[in-house]
């Protein structure tokens, strides 16, 4: 029977690339996000390529909406063996001194509580499959801090803490927890969301960087980790572009 993979934040960037990749690997993908039209386009694309996918409109900040995702998982055409918690994002680049409480709240809600809510709702189905994998897409921002990144790094550190804690708590059950921590990934919307639609500011993040990661690179890491034999747990995979040795050490060529 076809295994089912759930990907949150599948309407763009890393989530969309992961949905495409997992469908190509033979999973039936439940592609979840808020924007139904984009999900419908993605499902049509996957289906045209010979894969299987279903769109599930879902807001991970809502209990009711996440319950709908769990219902869709219960009706999916196979055991739910993989959950990729990818939905997330950043807002603002303000110092702690003047950061917006609303931005911090948004980041905590989506990255931390959203991930928690989805894991809680899907864990029974993952365990019932006999061998479930939970992937948490955190960030190198979950491992280190940087100036202006206080709200995002706080949320990603908390998301990383969920992955580590859950691995301890689930030990002995047929479930594994994998944390993926990407560095700089050039996706279309991440920077636009962070800078409230300011395309110039968003583009400046990647200016002159030879070869930032792209969404497909991260999807490749997720697919590799998730398709190892079931007794193998890749606890954490940190992936950065070659040009980014650390958060503060980015090679740029003048343009
Ligand atoms: N880009 C980077 O440099 C980078 C680096 C490290 C880690 N990451 C992490 O990787 C993940 C994906 O990033 P990305 O670059 O692909 O960003 P993105 O293109 O902005 O994707 C974010 C996704 O999350 C979904 N989303 C937002 N709010 C949601 C909600 N309330 N409920 C359900 N879905 C929601 C969005 O879809 P809808 O708007 O349709 O809901 C979208 O599909 C995030 O967790 C991010 O923190 C990114």
TrEMBL record:
| Record-annotated Ketoreductase domain positions | 3-188
Highest taxon listed in the record's lineage: Bacteria
Alphabetical keyword list: Oxidoreductase
Give the matching Pfam families: adh_short
* Key word Oxidoreductase present: yes
Give the protein family.
Belongs to the short-chain dehydrogenases/reductases (SDR) family.
What is the name of this protein? SDR family oxidoreductase
Origin organism of this chain?
Micromonospora zamorensis
